[in-house]
Write a structure and sequence with these properties.
The protein is mostly beta strands. Helices cover 8% and strands 51% of the residues. It has a four-stranded antiparallel β-sheet with strand order 3-2-1-28, with no helix packed on it. β13 and β14 form a beta hairpin.
Length: 335
């Protein structure tokens, strides 16, 4: 008599698959439940900005200029400005139509920029020219340039629009630039190869990542001097493989998240004590960072694995990783 094959393995497989579907549905619901928001990611090699929903589902792709990198919203959030390193342009994307509607000429190899408080001027670091360049976004004309140390990158404009902080990767300093007199008024010595900034919500501290020092320097804006440092260590990993770049702060100013580059992790830091609470595994060369509007989700672009990791900040766990084009650079999150 031929025995019948037990259906149990098929039932088990169905149950496992159903559990996975339900679990993912719960993740998606949690990611978007607090408020509807959109995640934009610049893809350097695709010359596109990818558009995702809050849970990481790809919605569309926007053709932009060549090698899109850093992005910012206009003050009214109707537009996205995207800095294009190979076409030397600032692309202007209309969010409603999902199309690039204009470009603004820039100096050679632009990467990071910030806007004046009224959104009328862009201050852009030009790596090849070694300058901070100011551009009028209404007339699309250059206003002035200020010579910096070699390979300027990070740019942060103060809330009153009077000063800008600019990193020089070669000089290992942060330049404090008076935008009225158009002069460097102080060089603040930090770690090796400083990259990006984050400002505390109260404006009292500026955090700058030091890629080749495995650290973040904390600048006191009252004295314009370094008052502290956060050093990153991961068990079993050489310090030279821990290369912090991206820095973001939560809206209450109590927590900072730092991407650790080749270490493939992000670090959660207690701002008051400057102690690392925990690290979370992301993708290869964790780079760009953005927080959701409620700070519950961290979006991490991974430049060498061509994807984006969604981190549950309360659980301290990576929940999902999604493809994000070739060499994703910057995530930008908005309603």
């Amino acid at each position: 008599m031929q025995s019948k094959k037990s259906p149990l393995p098929n039932v088990q497989a169905w149950c496992v698959q159903a559990w996975r579907v339900l679990a993912m549905a719960a993740v998606l619901a949690c990611a978007g439940a607090a408020q509807a928001q959109t995640v934009y990611v610049s893809s350097e090699k695709d010359n596109k900005v990818l558009v995702f929903d809050a849970a990481g589902k790809l919605l569309s792709k926007i053709e932009v200029c060549k090698r899109p990198r850093h992005m910012l919203f206009s003050p009214d959030r109707s537009k996205i400005y995207v800095c294009c390193g190979d076409s030397n342009q600032l692309g202007v994307v209309d969010r409603a139509s999902g199309k690039m509607v204009d470009t603004v000429p820039l100096a050679d190899s632009p990467e990071i920029f910030d806007l004046s408080p009224d959104g009328k001027v862009a201050y852009v670091s030009s790596e090849d020219d070694g300058v901070l360049a100011a551009v009028d976004l209404t007339t699309r004309k250059p206003l002035f340039q200020i010579k910096t140390g070699g390979e300027p990158e990070g740019v942060l404009v103060t809330r009153d629009g009077k000063f800008a902080y600019v990193t020089s990767e070669e000089a290992n300093v942060v330049h404090l630039i008076d935008l009225v007199s158009k002069k460097i008024v102080k060089d603040i010595q930090v770690g090796n190869r400083p990259r990006r900034f984050a400002a505390s919500p109260d404006g009292r501290e500026i955090w700058v990542s030091n890629e080749l020092s495995a650290s973040v320097s904390v600048i006191d804006t009252a004295t314009q001097a370094v008052k502290g440092r956060v050093l990153f260590q991961i068990q079993g990993m050489r310090a030279s493989d821990i290369t912090p770049v991206g820095v973001v702060m939560t809206r209450d100013g109590k927590t900072a998240w730092v991407s650790l580059g080749r270490a493939n992790h992000v670090a959660e830091v207690d701002v008051a004590t400057r102690q690392v609470r925990r690290t979370v595994l992301a993708g290869k060369r964790a780079w760009g960072l953005a927080l959701s509007q409620d700070d519950k989700w961290l979006y991490v672009t991974n430049g060498l694995s061509d994807d984006m990791t969604l981190v549950d900040t309360q659980a301290g766990k990576a929940i999902r990783t999604v493809a994000a084009g070739r060499v994703p650079h910057t995530p930008l999150v908005g309603p």
